[in-house]
Design a protein that fits this description.
This protein is mainly beta and 193 residues long. Helices cover 5% and strands 65% of the residues. Strands 1-2-3-4-6-7-8-9-10-11 form a ten-stranded antiparallel β-barrel. Strand 3 and strand 4 form a beta hairpin. The longest helix has 9 residues.
């Protein structure tokens, strides 16, 4: 496939199912992260997303990770508000503003999160995306982000989703971040409503 073939397929894609370019769903998945200094973490994530108007929505991410080689478990709650900018029927720009509150043992950290997702329907049942996030630590008494030990960082990621039915999708996301995460991977399923 060439880029022009991919774009041509996307421009003619019919997204009549309720999975592709849809932001009303409940999702669950497996997470694997590899951090600096050979530190790894595995766990799960639950995500809930719902539109509260034609263009605005709310999302809550709740991952929990076991840190390999230790008894520590990290968890976080990340609520955010987003806007769906429909550039075309097949291309959406989705800016987000939210918080990320993390706990690791007795320590906690809170970051402000600014993000932008670019989602593209390349076919009737296939969606691809790329995104960027900036996280800035707000409570300096927490001694930085708990796992990666940095004050702020930027994340870039690529994602893909396939509609397996009218309301169920499976997807994956690969992530890297400055100053902290060498590689992250999420695979999961979504139930759209």
């Amino acid at each position: 496939f060439t880029l022009s073939t991919l774009l041509a397929c996307g421009l003619s894609a019919d997204t009549e199912n309720s999975v592709i370019l849809d932001y009303d769903y409940i999702a669950a998945g497996f997470v694997h992260n590899e951090y600096d200094a050979n530190l790894e973490a595995d766990g799960g994530i639950v995500q809930v997303s719902a539109m509260f108007s034609d263009d605005f929505g709310f999302r809550l991410d709740a991952p929990i990770l076991d840190i390999d080689g230790s008894d520590d478990t990290a968890w976080s709650l990340s609520p955010s508000i987003f806007y769906v900018g429909k550039v075309t029927e097949k291309l959406h720009l989705v800016p987000r503003l939210g918080l990320n509150h993390s706990m690791l043992g007795e320590q906690n950290s809170t970051e402000i999160v600014l993000g932008l997702d670019v989602n593209f329907a390349v076919a009737e049942k296939v969606q691809l995306g790329v995104g960027f996030e900036h996280q800035e630590n707000t409570n300096r008494n927490s001694n930085r982000n708990l796992i990666s030990n940095v004050d702020n960082y930027q994340t870039i990621y690529a994602s893909g989703k396939i509609a397996v039915s009218e309301s169920v999708g499976i997807g994956a996301r690969i992530t890297t971040a400055s100053e902290s995460l060498d590689l992250g991977f999420i695979i999961g399923a979504e139930l759209h409503f």
